[in-house]
Specification:
It contains 13 helices and eight strands. The chain is α/β, with parallel strands linked by helices. The radius of gyration is 22 Å and the shape is globular.
Length: 398
Amino acid sequence: MSQRRGSVSPFFCFVRDQLPELRRRGLPVARVVDAIPHCRQAWASLTEEEKAKYLEKARKWNGKNRSQKTEKETHNLGDPVPASLTKKMPSVTSLPDALAVSWNNDQAVVTDIFYFLDIYSHGKLPSQCELRFLPCEIGCVRYSLQDGITADFHHFIDPEAPPRGFRYHCQAAGAETHKIPISGFHLPRTCYTVVLQELLEFAQPARGVQPRFFCRSNDRFRISWCLGRMASVAGIESPLQLFAVEDLIVELYLKKYLKEPSKTWVSRKLDVCLWDFSSNTRCKWHEENDIICCALASCKKIAYCISRSLASVYGVPLTAAHLPPGVSHGDQSTSTRIVKLDAACQKMKAESSGYDRPFGSPSQDREFIPSNRDSPCGVKTSLGVKEVSYREEELLHF
């Protein structure tokens, strides 16, 4: 909704056009963001024909800036995409402008369907290697605020042979995370072609609406590269659109509170280890071997975080589809068990702390919107809560 993201929405164009009239009425609207609360009702009352005019304005403006934005994002990632894959790479961008238009009311928000996706790899190879990643596991869930997780998708992927001299590098990287061996794995693996075909069948468009896939922003390059590589090898055009789940959460908060949390704050809340050992979260193999890192689990934990924090805000009762078994669906408070991992053992330490809380409303969390006070951003100073630095919080989680 804001220009700083590199694109504008039809609603943004509408608000910008209303600025002169709002200023004439004496309202303190120095910027577009100041005028948003005064324009939401007027926007909702517009006809589809009137909204179409602003949709065309936004499309023209975004068309002029899209190529420049894509080039900048690729440079910032520091990992150029091989030229042979650029035509088959899925779209990696911010949330579509049409999202603000489709969410006309809370009911449209809670019924909207999202797909959370993750792909694990046998490590990350240097830029001089043609193969940057070796995809070995894929997980995906279908989710809505109203119904929770309605379906899940999971496969172990038959990886390509690692480049000569990098086999140990790949195996060691996997041993530190998902622990899936490069060879000698006793469970069946699926080839690239079947994985992509079944993923596209799993996310069949509903009512002509293109399915939207979301992942953590730090994982976008890896997942996008893996999808592109699999599409290239399989000879399949991949129409998937890949967005950052942090952007989705920001929009869900903005829709309800008319205030935007920082993406750093959202990312920290997504890093909770609250559900690492919850049943029915990891795939069967990772569950049986008590391994935390699982592609399916990372997708489900995103859904759990959104459910725990935003379902009640939108008036949706929590069910077994929103949270894992054994979690109280009616209690929104969180008395968590912090998991402290060590090379020799896995030690559980009970803590009653707010730092593993998935999210919170502005009234519940003082760090929701950074203030200009002396306390640094990301540090709680509420009564009865001990101040903990960002580095100390990381040590609690890991």
